Every structure is written in C-alpha cells, then in structure tokens.
Amino acid sequence: MHPFELVLSVSKEDIEFELRGVKEVAWADFCLNPRKLRGSDFLMRWSQGVWSEKRLIDAVNKTLQFYAIAYGLSSTAPKDNVRDFELYFERLDKAGIGNIKRPDLLIFKIEDKPFVDNFIAYSGGEEELPFITEDKLQDIIQKAVIAVECENSL
Description:
Helix content is 36%, strand content 8%. It is mostly helical. It has one domain. A 3-stranded antiparallel beta sheet has the order 1-2-3. It starts with a helix and ends in a 6-residue tail after the last strand.
C-alpha cells in the first residue's frame, strides 16, 4: 500500500455511521478515509526520539574527531495543505523510503566534514536527504564510519 494511503487509512471496523432517509449519495463511489489521529503516547515517543537524535549530534559534533548528520526520516508531513501532504508521501515513495529503514544518524571522521557538507549543500540540504534515493547517496554513505539508530526509554 502507498505510504500516503497508509497514513490516511482507517480500517472498516473503525467507521460506523448510518444514512437514514437518503436514497442516493452522489459521492458513494468515491472513498477517502480521514487521517487517523495519533495518540499522545506516539507524539511523546516521537518527540523524545528527535530530542535524543539532536543530543547525540551535538555531542558527536563537539568532539574533534567525528561529525554527525541526521540521515533517517525524522520530519513530519506538512499539516496545513492537503496537496503538500500528499506530495510529501509521493516524494518519500519515489525515494524508496517505504521499502527501507534508514538509520537516524551517519557519523563521519572530522576530516570528511567538508566533503559531506558540500555533498549535502549540493543535494539541497539535510532536509532533502530523505527524498533522495539510496543509490545517489552512496558517496556519503561510503564515507560514514558508523550508522546510528537512536532510541530513548521513557
């Protein structure tokens, strides 16, 4: 299933309504499920995950030996515009994000910082990395010393 559809999907068990006294519904052949709302527990874990990524990036970047960047998908889809919301998931799908799980961070030797910074700038900035296919990121992936998945316990 397309990532956009997954986010917007609601199982049939969650939808209960009854139309009484309506003989014809013009939109009956069109189905768009409302976005599932996520609970506060998800938002809290997501916020803590982003917080832990930023703390680790800060700590690594304060060393004189290593340099860290955010690599995995840590952003959220746009909320204010339905079309932007849909395009966000189309771009992720085109980059193959639905098929793989990227690590949260890539860590490099400090000597590789100029190369990594130039690569990222040429690619449109760190926020564009999730929308670029893995094959086009091999130059920086191969320079990484380690990939890190950040987790945080409540």
